[in-house]
């Protein structure tokens, strides 16, 4: 039995931390922030790895691989473009 | 043992993700944030992959390789196309969540009905609805931003639109309740597929009535939906790391949506159900005022003699690809001891923060980029406000013209500067120009022409030293 109450607990705490941290993000960096959070939320990739790699029926694993591809694209392009944009912000 | 590794990795990855976002509070430390994010991600992926339940590796490798092949070019798009790329990545995120939810449902329905408890089924339904509506909604938004031909740019509205939209969502949720109660009935699979179909449809219907001006808000809202679908996926897969990362993404989208809505003086419901841009009202100007045109030479002189110049850039500047010329102008003026600042409206550009990135690309130091709230009190002391391709965000009608679509929207007080120079493409008085009384103010001088060409001329004047 999954302990859903502790999951809700985690969700509430993470949301508060998220709101606190994001509120302090520099306004200059909202565009890179969005691509960064995008890449981070592609952590969904860990779910797709399980669905694609566990001993499940073939069709299920194909769905997993498709989702894995989508998340991986977000991870790769998200982190790369965030860094590319941040490099451009120079003080002088 | 591997279980402990996985849990430890999840804690470590969570901490790294929080640091990653924390470091975004200053451009000096921001790149460290990317390193932290990549490290956290790698740790989490590796710890998942070594779990004993992962027995097939071929497709994982294939999907990861394919992700690199598509992801690398997507990260190299021109910066004007970053909003589309962002919308597209929300679409991918929503799609991944929706597909995993679908897989988990059919897996449970086929092999292990006991797994489909009411709580887990609710999470699956939430994941699938949120995931697929984010998928198609973001694809539509990306299409509109990219100006794909077969997606109408203008808001598409029809009578009873909101009733239809809400109706589709209500039916999807009602069917969701039905499969939560009867997860394994003979017809449950079909009902589940119908939910997927309705969510896909709802995403399209939701974005069709939304116009270009609302894109910064819409992208932010879709961002938080993408985060929420990741949270739902975490509940389905019993994965706290997913819940945490999804919550971080969701709260980021939420905060950005609130900031964007405030910057346009609109509410969420108004953006999603208000069909902005359909109310095209031409604000009547009291007197028949005409603009005064200035020559490039005169404008260059004005700028040179100023001690404080505030540039107000709009998306038009980026469309004209004028930012590099603007940088040259900035160099010429700062060389002469003129203090040059850039006033950035929160919704300038096509997504939150877009204008800052476009100017940073042109090597304009970020210390010269100033937020609206900071620059407005200074505008009265400003000698020249140079408006480049901005319109709504400097329109004084926003302060008083009730009934105007921009009424109540906070604006940059360009009109309060001692002199206003506005670069505008067209002389035609019948178009948007005349709506903006800033252009016919006593202290405003117009420069007509393509922004890039006009600024190029200004730079030439200043560099040539012909004014001395």
Give an overview of the whole structure.
- The complex is a heterodimer of chains A (92) and B (468).
- Chain A has helices at residues 4-23, 30-41, 45-53, 58-88.
- Chain A has a domain at 27-88.
- In chain A, helix 2 (30-41) packs antiparallel against helix 4 and helix 3 (45-53) packs antiparallel against helix 4 (58-88).
- Chain A is flat.
- Helices cover 78% and strands 0% of the residues of chain A.
- Chain A has 92 residues and is mainly α.
- Chain A is built from four helices and no strands.
- Chain B is of the alpha/beta class and 468 residues long.
- Chain B folds into two domains: 77-273, no CATH class; 296-464, 3-Layer(aba) Sandwich (Rossmann fold), CATH 3.40.50.1220.
- Chain B is 59% helix and 7% strand.
- Chain B is built from 18 helices and six strands.
- Chain B has helices at 2-22, 30-49, 58-74, 82-111, 118-146, 161-181, 188-207, 215-237, 240-264, 268-273, 296-305, 315-319, 323-335, 354-361, 372-375, 397-400, 432-435, 451-464, and strands spanning 308-313, 339-344, 369-371, 384-388, 419-424, 444-448.
- Chain B has a six-stranded parallel β-sheet with strand order 3-2-1-4-5-6.
- In chain B, helix 1 (2-22) packs antiparallel against helix 2, helix 8 runs antiparallel to helix 9 and helix 13 (323-335) runs parallel beside helix 18 (451-464).
- Chains A and B meet through helix 1, helix 2, helix 3 and helix 4 of A and helix 1, helix 2, helix 3, helix 4 and helix 8 of B.
């Amino acid at each position: 039995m999954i302990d859903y109450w502790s999951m809700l607990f985690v969700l509430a705490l993470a949301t508060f931390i998220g709101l606190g941290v994001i509120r302090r993000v520099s306004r200059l960096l909202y565009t890179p922030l969005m691509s960064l959070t995008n890449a981070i939320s592609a952590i969904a990739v860990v779910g797709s790895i399980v669905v694609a790699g566990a001993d499940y029926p073939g069709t299920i694993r194909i769905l997993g691989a498709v989702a894995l591809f989508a998340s991986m694209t977000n991870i790769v392009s998200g982190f790369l473009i965030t860094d590319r944009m941040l490099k451009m912000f120079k003080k002088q | 043992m591997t279980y402990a590794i996985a849990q430890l990795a999840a804690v470590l990855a969570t901490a790294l993700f929080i640091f990653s976002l924390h470091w975004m509070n200053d451009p000096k430390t921001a790149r460290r944030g990317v390193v932290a994010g990549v490290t956290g991600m790698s740790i989490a992926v590796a710890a998942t992959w070594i779990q004993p339940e992962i027995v097939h590796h071929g497709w994982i490798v294939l999907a990861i390789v394919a992700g690199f092949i598509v992801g690398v070019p997507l990260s190299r798009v021109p910066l004007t196309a970053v909003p589309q790329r962002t919308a597209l990545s929300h679409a991918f995120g929503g799609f991944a969540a929706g597909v995993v939810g679908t897989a988990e449902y059919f897996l449970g329905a086929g092999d292990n009905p006991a797994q489909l408890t009411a709580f887990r089924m609710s999470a699956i339904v939430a994941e699938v609805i949120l995931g697929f509506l984010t998928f198609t909604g973001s694809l539509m938004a990306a299409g509109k931003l990219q100006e794909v031909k077969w997606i109408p740019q203008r808001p598409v509205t029809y009578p009873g639109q909101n009733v239809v939209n809400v109706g589709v969502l209500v039916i999807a949720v009602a069917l969701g309740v039905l499969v939560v109660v009867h997860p394994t009935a003979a017809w449950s699979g079909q009902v589940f597929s119908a939910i997927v179909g309705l969510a896909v449809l709802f995403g399209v219907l939701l974005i069709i009535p939304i116009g270009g001006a609302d894109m910064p808000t819409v992208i932010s809202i879709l961002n938080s939906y993408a985060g929420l679908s990741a949270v739902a996926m975490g509940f389905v897969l019993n994965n706290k790391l997913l819940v945490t990362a999804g919550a971080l993404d969701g709260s980021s989208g939420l905060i950005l949506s609130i900031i964007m809505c405030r910057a346009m003086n609109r509410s969420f419901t108004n953006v999603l159900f208000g069909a902005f841009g359909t109310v095209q009202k031409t604000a009547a100007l009291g007197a028949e005022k005409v603009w005064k045109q200035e020559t490039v030479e005169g404008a260059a002189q004005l700028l040179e003699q100023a001690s404080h110049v505030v540039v107000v850039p709009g998306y038009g500047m980026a469309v004209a690809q004028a930012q590099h010329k603007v940088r040259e102008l900035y160099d010429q003026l700062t060389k002469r001891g003129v203090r040059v600042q850039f006033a950035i409206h929160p919704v300038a550009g096509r997504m939150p923060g877009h204008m800052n990135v476009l100017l940073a690309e042109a090597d304009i130091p970020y210390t010269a980029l100033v937020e609206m709230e900071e620059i407005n009190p200074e505008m009265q002391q400003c000698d020249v406000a140079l408006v480049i391709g901005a319109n709504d965000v400097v329109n004084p009608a926003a302060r008083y013209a009730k009934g105007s679509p921009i009424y109540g929207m906070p604006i940059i007080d360009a009109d309060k500067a001692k002199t206003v120079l506005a670069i505008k493409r067209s002389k035609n008085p019948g178009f948007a120009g005349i709506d903006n009384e800033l252009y016919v103010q006593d202290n405003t001088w117009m420069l007509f022409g393509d922004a890039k060409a006009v600024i190029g001329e200004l730079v030439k004047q200043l560099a040539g030293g012909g004014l001395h």
